[in-house]
Amino acid sequence: MENTIDDLSVRTETGKKLSSPVTALLYKSTPWIKTVAVLGIVMGMFNLATSVYKLTADMPARALPVPGLQYFSVFAALLSIVSAYLLYQYAQKLKAYNLEENNQILREAFTKQRVYYTWTGVLAIFYVVVIIMFIIWLVPYAMSMNRSVMRH
Amino acid sequence: MESTTPLDLNTDPSAEDFDQAIDQLYRTTKWMKFLSVFGFIGSGLIALFGLITLAAPGGRGIIMTLVCLLVAILLFIPCRFLYKYARGVQEYVESPVIANLEEAFNYYRIFWMYNGIMFWIYLALTVIGGLVGLNGKSFTL
Q1: Subunit contact A22:B6, Cβ cutoff 8 A
Q2: B82, B128, B117: which is closest to A35 by C-alpha?
Q3: How many domains does chain A have?
């Protein structure tokens, strides 16, 4: 039966009793964090492989609306792998805390969490800047395309 | 009597380490709030885009609107959990009551569970989409 939050006697898979509901909640969150991290790494690797494949394949330059877009997709895949790896490191620390229930490990885990969220936040700002630049570039491009279509 | 440090009941009762852990967590809440507000704005913009496409001629407009609204809702939900988690941690620091931290970590658990499930669904849809795409190509060949 699933333990509730108020149940103080939540046990780990090794049969160890967890001391508090907060610890139990952290314990229950860990497999989900690890799932997201591992799937993130796998998908990042897949995206990297497809991006590199597209880069090496002969693609007509005109097919891309923005010059250098093919390099950017490789870069974006690498950034997503870094994100997933930071999350994985945090999940590992959290797992160690679940086993030992040592506050020093908890501090290290929360430090890893801070690194992960800071990285994600900076990445979000970076992508907004990229999207704005893309729009700035795309509007004149779309207008020039429209003019060339009208001419023909 | 209610304890104010729920985690120092552990094998390592170092209150200093616990305080530092909470300090790290508190410092993270600013980024968490930033990301959740970012998500709220993003989901709002997606919903707005969906409503704008409603004006498009033909049946595609309605489908696009529904897809956009669905994506906006799916994006809004985890951002709300993340915001509540950050808010809960801040409330705990302001008034150190275990209930605040328990509530925060419950939202935290739901946030990661939601993300995990969504990731699996996304992966399944990607695989199905890939297979359908390959099938479609083999038919055309």
Answers
A1: yes
A2: B117
A3: 1
Give the nearest partner residue to B10 out of A31, A102, A111, using CB atoms.
A102
Cβ contact, residue pair B28, A110, below 8 Å? yes
Q: What chain B residue is nearest to A33 in terms of C-alpha separation?
A: B112
CA nearest neighbour of B25 among B105, B136, B80, B123: B105
- The helix-helix angle for B60-94 and B98-140 (nearest 10°) equals 150
Nearest by Cα to A107 from A121, A118, A96: A96
pLDDT attached to residue B33: 96
Domain range annotation of chain B: 15-116
Q: Grade residue A112 by pLDDT with cuts at 50, 70 and 90.
A: very high
Q: Do A32 and B14 touch (CB under 8 A)?
A: no
**Residues spanned by the domain of A50:** 21-151
Query: Cβ distance B21 to A107 under 8 Å?
Result: yes
Asked if the model's pLDDT at residue A37 lies above 90, the reply is: yes
* Distance in angstroms (rounded) separating the CA atoms of residues A88 and A80: 12
Q: Of the candidates A28, A111, A124, which has its C-beta nearest B24's C-beta?
A: A111
- Is B18 in Cβ contact with A28 (below 8 Å)? no
Non-local CB neighbours of B64 within 8 Å, separated by 6+ positions = B50, B53, B56
pLDDT bucket at A19, cuts 50 / 70 / 90: low
Only one residue has tokens 């891309």, namely A64
Per-residue pLDDT band for B43 (boundaries 50, 70, 90) equals: very high
B6/A contact by beta carbon, under 8 A: yes
Contacts of the segment A59-68: beta carbons below 8 A, 24+ positions apart: A65/A138, A65/A141, A66/A134, A66/A137, A66/A138, A66/A141
| Minimal-distance CA residue of chain A relative to B111 | A29
Q: Is the CB of B6 less than 8 angstroms away from the CB of A20?
A: yes
B99 touches chain A (CB under 8 A): no
CB atoms within 10 A of CB B141: 5
